[in-house]
């Protein structure tokens, strides 16, 4: 790589980072629905046509911010899971749940971007899926390890739900029983509901010791998917 080419590449990386940083400031101040490429360009002292060379549309910029947010959340959850690698499935599950909560409390506007109200007129492309799946794949891995090792307390499954449960299992974790995958998907949704209630104020004047409450709730979610073994593997 020539020196000039390398300098251009570094400059592009720096400008891209500056654009994203300014966009995140706008998210915090105005919300995702009001994100504007022209406003970002103005704050950075750029002409709009120059910014379009980095992000051709608002949706392209939103997609980049969404992928960054999912990746940041995924990295935090994966680090917590790695730190708990010597523990049993239940402890690892709770460690990942607590990492999700900590990240959300530290990045409320980015959490709102990926798990809050949809942005009008925006549809996330498939390129967001790998980053979005990182936390879910951790939970699937924890449950899979328990299923192959200590075992799971198998939940019941209504007969009318079995076809949908089998479809979800085929898509998400073919090696796990459909009834387990069903409650795993429900627990994943409930986790983000718990975090969202805390982050967006629904627990005000309801839950005071939120850390203890969350840890208990995360444990209940784990029990719901059959992780009832606190001992080490």
From TrEMBL:
<dbReference type="Pfam" id="PF00440">
    <property type="entry name" value="TetR_N"/>
</dbReference>
<protein>
    <submittedName>
        <fullName>AcrR family transcriptional regulator</fullName>
    </submittedName>
</protein>
<dbReference type="InterPro" id="IPR009057">
    <property type="entry name" value="Homeodomain-like_sf"/>
</dbReference>
<keyword id="KW-0805">Transcription regulation</keyword>
<feature type="domain" description="HTH tetR-type">
    <location>
        <begin position="13"/>
        <end position="73"/>
    </location>
</feature>
<dbReference type="Pfam" id="PF13305">
    <property type="entry name" value="TetR_C_33"/>
</dbReference>
<dbReference type="InterPro" id="IPR050109">
    <property type="entry name" value="HTH-type_TetR-like_transc_reg"/>
</dbReference>
<dbReference type="InterPro" id="IPR001647">
    <property type="entry name" value="HTH_TetR"/>
</dbReference>
<feature type="DNA-binding region" description="H-T-H motif">
    <location>
        <begin position="36"/>
        <end position="55"/>
    </location>
</feature>
<dbReference type="InterPro" id="IPR025996">
    <property type="entry name" value="MT1864/Rv1816-like_C"/>
</dbReference>
<keyword id="KW-0804">Transcription</keyword>
<dbReference type="InterPro" id="IPR036271">
    <property type="entry name" value="Tet_transcr_reg_TetR-rel_C_sf"/>
</dbReference>
<keyword id="KW-0238">DNA-binding</keyword>
């Amino acid at each position: 790589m020539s020196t000039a080419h390398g300098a251009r590449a570094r400059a592009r990386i720096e400008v891209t980072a500056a654009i994203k940083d300014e966009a995140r400031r706008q998210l915090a101040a105005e919300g995702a629905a009001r994100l504007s490429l022209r406003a970002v360009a103005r704050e950075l002292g750029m002409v709009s046509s120059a910014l379009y060379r980095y992000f051709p549309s608002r949706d392209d910029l939103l997609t980049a911010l969404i992928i960054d947010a999912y990746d940041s959340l995924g990295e935090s959850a994966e680090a917590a899971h790695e730190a708990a690698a010597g523990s049993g499935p239940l402890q690892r599950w709770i460690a990942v749940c607590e990492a999700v909560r900590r990240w959300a409390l530290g990045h409320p506007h980015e959490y709102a971007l990926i798990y809050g109200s949809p942005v009008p007129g925006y549809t996330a492309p498939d390129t967001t899926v790998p980053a979005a799946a990182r936390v879910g794949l951790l939970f699937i891995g924890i449950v899979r390890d328990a299923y192959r090792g200590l075992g799971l307390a198998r939940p019941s499954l209504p007969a009318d739900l079995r076809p949908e449960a089998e479809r979800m299992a085929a898509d998400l974790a073919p090696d796990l029983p459909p009834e387990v995958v069903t409650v795993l998907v429900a627990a994943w949704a409930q986790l983000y509901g718990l975090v969202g209630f805390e982050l967006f104020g629904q627990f005000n004047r309801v839950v005071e010791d939120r850390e203890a409450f969350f840890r208990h709730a995360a444990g209940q979610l784990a029990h719901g998917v059959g992780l009832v073994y606190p001992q080490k593997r």
